[in-house]
Amino acid sequence: MIRLEDLTFSYNGGPPVLKNIDLKIEKGEMVGILGPNGSGKSTLLRLMSGAIEPSRGRVYLDEKELSRTGRREIAKKMAVVPQETVLGFDFTVREVVSMGRYPHLGRFQFNDPRSHYTIDRAMRSTEVLELSDKSFSKLSGGEKQRTILARALAQEPIILLLDEPTRNLDIRHSLDIMTLVKDMNIGGALTVVVILHDLDLAARFCNRAILLKEGRVHRDGPMEKVLTPEHIHQVFDVRSRVRREEVMRIEVIG
User: Fold this and answer.
1) How much of the chain is in helix, strand and coil states, percent to nearest 5?
2) Is the alpha carbon torsion for 51, 125, 127, 35 positive or negative?
3) DSSP 3-state assignment of 194?
4) pLDDT at 116 over 80
5) Which tens digits make up the pLDDT trace of 7-18?
6) Residue 69: C-alpha distances to residues 23, 73, 95, 222, 249 (Å)
7) CA 101/CA 105 separation, integer angstroms
8) What are phi and psi of 73, to 5 degrees?
9) Sheet harboring 191-195: ordered strands across?
10) Starting at the edge strand that comes first in sequence, how are the strands of the sheet with 64-65 ordered?
11) For residues 27 and 7, what is the distance between their CA atoms, to the nearest angstrom?
C-alpha cells in the first residue's frame, strides 16, 4: 500500500534527517515506528503522508507516486493524527470531527445522513460525543487528541498514520485508544502506522516494528524479532527484559 524507495530527506539543505530508507507497508499491517528522539520518526511519517517531499527517492501509495496524487484523493484513503493540532478558528468538537468528511462530500452535501452517522460513531468510539458543543480550544490535551482521532476515523480511511497518539493521554485512555485502533485493524480493514515511545505498548498492540537509529532503519520485522534486549540496548542504550505471555511485554530495567 505504501512504498518508500531509496528515501533521503534534509530540512533546508542541512544534514540528512533520514538516509536511504527502503520500506513497504502492506495492507492490514499494524506497524510501530520506534526510536529515540531525533531518529527521524515524525519526519518519516510526514513523508508517508505526503506532507513533505523527499530530497531524494520516491513515496508510492497503491503503486502511484504520492507527489503526483491529489490531496483529496490521498485524503480519501489516508488519515493522519499528528502530535499536536492548532486550529486558526474556535471550532466546536463536532465541527472539528466533521472536517474528516470533507474529502468524501460535494460542495452541498454536508448534511447527508451517512456523514451524521459516521461522525457520531467516531465521536462515541473516542469518548468525545458528550463534548460535542465544547470549544476545541478549551479542551485538555487528552481531549484534543481524542477529538483529532475522531476526525481521522470520520474520514473512513483505509490507512491511519498516528504520531504518538497516546502522548497526552492517561493510562486508561491510552489503552482504550490503542485497543480501538487495534480492533479496527484486525481483519485487515485498516492499515495502521503508529509512532510510539512506549515499547511495552508497541509490543502489546503492533505486529511489526521499524526501529530507527540516527536516520536509518536499524531493524525491521516482526515485533518479537526486532524488540530484543540486544536491539533495544543498541538503539536506546538501556537494559530491558522481554517477557512472552499472552502478549509480548517489554520492561526497561536500567
Assistant:
1) 40, 30, 35
2) negative
3) strand
4) yes
5) 999 999 899 999
6) 19, 7, 27, 31, 40
7) 7
8) -65, -40
9) 78-81, 159-163, 191-195, 30-34, 208-213, 216-222
10) 16-25, 2-10, 56-61, 64-65
11) 21
Confidence at residue 218, expressed as pLDDT on a 0 to 100 scale: 97
Q: What are phi and psi of 180, to 5 degrees?
A: -60, -50
- Grouping H, G, I as helix, E, B as strand and the rest as coil, residue 212 is strand
Q: 201-214: per-residue pLDDT in tens?
A: 999 999 999 999 99
CA distance 178 to 22: 27
The 8 Å CB, 24+ separation contacts for 19-25 are: 19/215, 19/216, 20/216, 21/57, 21/216, 21/217, 22/217, 23/210, 23/217, 23/220, 25/1, 25/159, 25/191, 25/193
What pLDDT, on the 0 to 100 scale, is given for residue 169? 85
Give bridge partners of residue 23 from the DSSP assignment.
4
Residues in the chain, total: 254
The pairing of beta strand 56-61 with beta strand 248-252: unpaired
Residue whose C-alpha cell is 497518539: 165
- Using CA atoms in the order 101, 103, 107, 111, what is the torsion angle rounded to 10 degrees? -20
Instruction: Determine the Cα–Cα distance for residues 164 and 133; give it in Å rounded to an integer.
Output: 26
Domains of the chain, start order: 77-197 (3.40.50.300)
| Residue 83, number of CB atoms within 10 A of its CB | 15
Show the cell assigned to 198: 512506549
